[in-house]
Amino acid sequence: MKKILSIGILLLxxxxxxxxxxxxEIRERLLSRDTSKVFVASHRAxxxxxxxxxxxxxxxVIEMGVDIVEVDLQLTKDSVLIIMHDPKLDRTTTxxxxxxxxxxxxxxxxxxKNGAGIYTRHKVPTLEEVLTLAKGRVxxxxxxxxxxxDLVHDLAKxxxxxxxxxxxxxxxxxxxxxxYGDYLNEILYMPIVHLDDQxxxxxxxxxxxxxxxxxxxKKMKADQKAAKxxxxxxxxxxxxxxxxxxxxxxxxxxxxxxxxDMKGKALIWYNCLWDTMAGGHDDDAAMVDINDGYGFLIDxxxxxxxxxxxxxxxxxxxxxxxxxx
Length: 325
Description:
- An 8-stranded parallel barrel has the order 1-2-4-5-6-7-8-9, surrounded by 6 helices.
- By secondary structure, the chain is α/β, with parallel strands linked by helices.
- Helix 3 (55-64) packs parallel to helix 4.
- The protein is built from 12 helices and 9 strands.
- The chain is globular, with a radius of gyration of 21 Å.
- Helices cover 39% and strands 14% of the residues.
């Protein structure tokens, strides 16, 4: 009896060591191509309520329950990795000038600005601070990380967060494999593939023209063929667990086809920041009709990962549909 009791106590003591962290669970679901739920990726964290890319903004979306937090990296003159979107300090801080020409000592006491451009009490976080905050709690999509990959990996190893990192990019599959090699066993790499002429559609976003007639059917077919070849190459060389797909309008039928073609091979990530990234089914569309926004991406295009500037709204919608915990 005493022996059985001792074994029971030992097993109970081991349970915390056997249990997985939330980030480990998310990673495993990504790698298993789990389509039972929809993952939520928050762009620049909770920037509508806190300064973008700030520690409280990141903590806020983690507590909401997002699966992935997207943040941006920049490198100071003295080689400190900080979290900031722009290459300059001007827009988001009380400082001025290029980050690459400024030492961290001159950045660490600056105040972050909110969305209205008013300074707050919050400071510019380093990557190490963000990794420490996020450890075990969420996956991190590090934008622009490929420029400083070795430095990023060193900090991830120091903080024990190597298996929480996601990198996305447009590099050819063979180049990704050559550059990052064995690191890909730890860090998840997800290719970004344009399914049509994004340069042309960028001009729509920038107000250069409003009609799509400049993009011919012949050009669209050529773009679609190139996109399918790019996807096939990535699958053969890297076997990524997910792709971010970008397309401008529903005139492009390839996204509908890929819902079927990608099933069981890779998850599909759509970015809802503006209309020509997700065929017009972006955050703004969801504000008008949520089923024409996120619902369309999920039901018509097989979207498994939604990147958003409105994480609370996405989570609420998904939970009502039993598509998120």
